[in-house]
């Protein structure tokens, strides 16, 4: 419920709690079990609902809500052919669901969830931002905040209630096909960007008409499969879990996220959906999470069908609910409802556990304002695809793109340059957006908006020089290499656009990070004629480009910059934007040489080395910056004290530009091996030529801490190093 003027948060919480308990006391067992059940839209859909004017089968909807009392619906019309829908159709659909819920005995609203992971991804023409890996590359939390604001607004204007975002898994396994849904390999960066997104999405009160609740996913360890394949085992010790994988979720809980989606796979042999220790001792006990947990897709039944931990589907339901799963994304039938009902009637799942789960779900529904909402919360006009939203998206795309190499300052190009554009990612919007865009896998190019330019189209719009394209209409189309070489001879420069097709989840599993051989064949043939080549890449993972990057005069890493990516990249190529993106991951030199920037000393000792193609935090500008004058407030501090630092950053070049200044910390000697450095603070500043700014940061005991021998977070006395740019300063933490 929305906060009323003069009403304290505690009073509001007390009021919600009273309403939850009063409603719970009136509910039948069937109504309670229904609240714990989430179904896919296809359960209430007509055949081919994605194409129907009215995709809802009214009888099926009424059966779901009035007879099965279901608490939540997710997804789009209609699995497996999910696709984007016009906003007015969404509003009619969600209104039809609200109206049926209003006919139920207790009028409990249905919570509608959607994967709006880079904007309202399933609403036609919505503002679609860079994906998370590219938002991380901006190093600009203000842009993450704006993305959260705009996404919530457009989701609510669509009539939808709940967003399955942000992904707070940490992206440290580059093979993993969901790497691009994370904020990269660094804990501090992921915590900062994810928290900013949540604050923008929630505002002061996520019941407000233009705000919506978020969902942390995928708790926890999902992103670190040993073999790199989606939904396969992770082997993570408790210290690594606490040091790298839990902080993002802890930050999300602290930021107020009321829901958590659970890891589809397993950690150390225990599937996420029956990990009582993770779901209760840590998430609720240590982190203080008060909301509800939701399973991922069909993962409770998979305890039986896939994981072989449950002897029957019935036992799978019992194990998951007793471990702490509050809502089941079933998703295609009422099996969970039927089995849990029976388990409750026999006493195998006690009513106390049912009531606990249902009260959590009802609490979030009250907190989201659903009981007060009888129609879509927000008008379309003034809240959907506004000028400010489009401008924020363009800015995010500009700041997300990374200039990794620029030999002899070949970039920016003159707008009179004659250019050959070739390569499989040059003329597609899909490759700049990735999965969860318009469709689940994001590949339906024919459904993409016609008014957003591809890279090729944006280049053609920018330049008065000759622009020739040699390539296909689809990613997989064979490119005529002989024709490309012939055309390259007739142009000043070649823009070679390589990368990946779209994907997400298990569909995106690959055997190797190496590029498709056909892309390398094209590149080698182009290089042979000796014309300058600018390599541009798009895709969600760091595919191995070492051979091509070494020969190219410039390298521009696009990752997944969203719908404005083509225009933004052209802005950078021709100098209308000064690039400022920085790598949120270490870009590997080869497929088996995967070392993080915050590696342990043993990983860079003797013959071992950290030798990526491009390091974490790397990104060039068309101007130059210099940091200097690093000073600490003290040489020695007491245990529990902060330490302040100051330094100057100056634009020493000839153009206005933005620079992200990063502060790293190293604990010189400790009882547990410590990384060679860890990012603890950063700030993006814009400076005119010759301008200088003094920056100040405070490092806290939390920044100096680590998970000790006894698995508790501690600060040990001793020497610490602070690193900014090329400077290092030292301080001592005294013994208590």
From TrEMBL:
Keyword Hydrolase part of the UniProt annotation: yes
Higher taxonomy: Bacteria, Pseudomonadati, Pseudomonadota, Gammaproteobacteria, Methylococcales
E.C. code: 3.2.1.21
Record keywords, A-Z: Glycosidase, Hydrolase, Signal
Enzyme class: hydrolase
Similarity annotation: Belongs to the glycosyl hydrolase 3 family.
Domain Fibronectin type III-like: 659-728
Stated name of the protein: beta-glucosidase
Record-linked PANTHER family: LYSOSOMAL BETA GLUCOSIDASE (PTHR30620:SF16), PERIPLASMIC BETA-GLUCOSIDASE-RELATED (PTHR30620)
Stored SMART domains: Fn3_like
InterPro entries: Cellulose_Degrad_GH3, Fn3-like, GH, Glyco_hydro_3_C, Glyco_hydro_3_C_sf, Glyco_hydro_3_N, Glyco_hydro_3_N_sf, Ig-like_fold
Domain of life of the organism encoding this protein: Bacteria
Reaction(s) this enzyme catalyzes, per UniProt: Hydrolysis of terminal, non-reducing beta-D-glucosyl residues with release of beta-D-glucose
Gene3D superfamilies from the UniProt entry: Glycoside hydrolase family 3 C-terminal domain (3.40.50.1700), Glycoside hydrolase, family 3, N-terminal domain (3.20.20.300), Immunoglobulins (2.60.40.10)
Signal peptide: none
Species per Swiss-Prot/TrEMBL record: Methylomonas methanica
């Amino acid at each position: 419920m929305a906060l009323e003027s003069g009403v304290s948060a505690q009073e509001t919480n007390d009021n919600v709690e009273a309403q939850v308990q009063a409603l719970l006391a009136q509910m039948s067992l069937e109504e309670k079990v229904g609240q714990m059940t989430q179904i896919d839209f296809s359960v209430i859909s007509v055949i081919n609902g994605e194409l129907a004017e009215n995709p809802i089968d009214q009888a099926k909807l009424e059966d779901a809500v009035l007879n099965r009392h279901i608490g939540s619906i997710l997804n789009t019309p209609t699995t497996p052919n999910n696709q984007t829908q016009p906003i007015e159709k969404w509003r009619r659909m969600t209104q039809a669901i609200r109206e049926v819920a209003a006919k139920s005995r207790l009028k409990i609203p249905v919570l509608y969830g959607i994967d709006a992971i880079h904007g309202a991804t399933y609403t036609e023409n919505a503002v679609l931002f860079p994906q998370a890996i590219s938002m991380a590359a901006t190093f600009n939390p203000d842009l993450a905040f704006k993305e959260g604001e705009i996404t919530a607004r457009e989701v609510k204007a669509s009539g939808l209630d709940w967003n399955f975002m942000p992904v707070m898994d940490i992206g440290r396994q580059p093979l993993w096909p969901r790497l691009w849904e994370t904020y990269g390999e660094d804990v501090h960066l992921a915590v900062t960007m994810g928290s900013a997104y949540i604050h923008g999405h929630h505002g002061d009160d996520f019941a407000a008409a233009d705000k919506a609740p978020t969902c942390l996913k995928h708790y926890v360890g999902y992103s670190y499969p040993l073999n790199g394949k989606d939904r396969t085992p992770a082997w993570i010790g408790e210290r690594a879990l606490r040091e790298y994988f839990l902080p993002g979720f802890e930050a999300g809980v602290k930021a107020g996220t009321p829901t958590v989606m659970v890891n589809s796979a397993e950690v150390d042999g225990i599937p996420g959906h029956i990990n009582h220790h993770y779901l209760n001792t840590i998430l609720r006990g240590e982190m203080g999470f008060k909301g509800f947990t939701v399973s991922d897709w069909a993962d409770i039944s998979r305890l039986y069908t896939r994981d072989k931990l449950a002897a029957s589907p019935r036992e799978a339901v019992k194990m998951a609910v007793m471990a702490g799963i509050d809502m089941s994304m079933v998703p295609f039938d009422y099996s969970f409802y039927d089995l849990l009902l029976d388990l409750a009637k026999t006493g195998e799942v006690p009513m106390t556990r049912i009531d606990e789960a249902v009260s959590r779900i009802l609490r979030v529904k009250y907190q989201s304002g659903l009981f007060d909402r009888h129609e879509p919360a927000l008008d379309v006009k003034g809240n959907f695809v506004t000028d400010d939203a489009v401008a924020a998206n363009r800015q995010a795309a500009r700041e997300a793109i990374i200039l990794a190499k620029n030999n002899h300052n070949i970039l920016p190009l003159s707008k009179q340059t004659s250019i050959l554009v070739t390569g499989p990612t040059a003329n597609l919007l899909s490759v700049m957006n990735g999965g969860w865009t318009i469709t689940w896998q994001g590949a339906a190019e024919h459904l993409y908006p016609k008014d957003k330019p591809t890279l090729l189209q944006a280049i053609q719009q920018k330049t008065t020089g000759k622009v020739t394209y040699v390539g296909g209409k689809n990613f997989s189309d064979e490119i005529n290499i002989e024709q490309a070489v012939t055309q390259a001879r007739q142009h000043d420069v070649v823009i070679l656009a390589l990368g990946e097709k779209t994907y997400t989840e298990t569909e995106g599993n690959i055997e190797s990070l190496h590029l498709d051989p056909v892309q390398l064949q094209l590149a080698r043939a182009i290089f042979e004629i000796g014309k300058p080549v600018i390599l541009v890449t798009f895709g969600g993972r760091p595919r191995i480009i070492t051979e091509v990057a070494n020969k190219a005069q410039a390298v521009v890493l696009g990752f997944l910059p969203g719908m404005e990516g083509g225009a933004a990249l052209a802005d950078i190529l021709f100098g209308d934007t000064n690039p400022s993106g920085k790598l949120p991951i270490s870009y590997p030199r080869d497929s088996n040489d995967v070392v993080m920037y915050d590696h342990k000393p043993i990983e860079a000792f003797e013959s071992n080395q950290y030798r990526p193609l491009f390091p974490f935090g790397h990104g060039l500008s068309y101007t130059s910056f210099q940091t200097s004058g690093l000073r600490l407030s003290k040489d020695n501090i007491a245990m529990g004290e902060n330490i302040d630092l100051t330094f100057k950053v100056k634009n020493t070049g000839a153009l206005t530009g933005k620079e992200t200044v990063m502060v790293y910390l190293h604990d010189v000697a400790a009882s547990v091996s410590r990384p060679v450095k860890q990012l603890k603070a950063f700030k993006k500043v814009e400076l005119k030529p010759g301008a200088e700014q003094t920056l100040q940061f405070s490092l806290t005991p939390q920044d100096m801490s680590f998970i000790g021998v006894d698995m508790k977070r501690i600060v040990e006395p001793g020497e610490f190093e602070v690193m900014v740019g090329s400077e290092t300063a030292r301080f001592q933490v005294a013994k208590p």
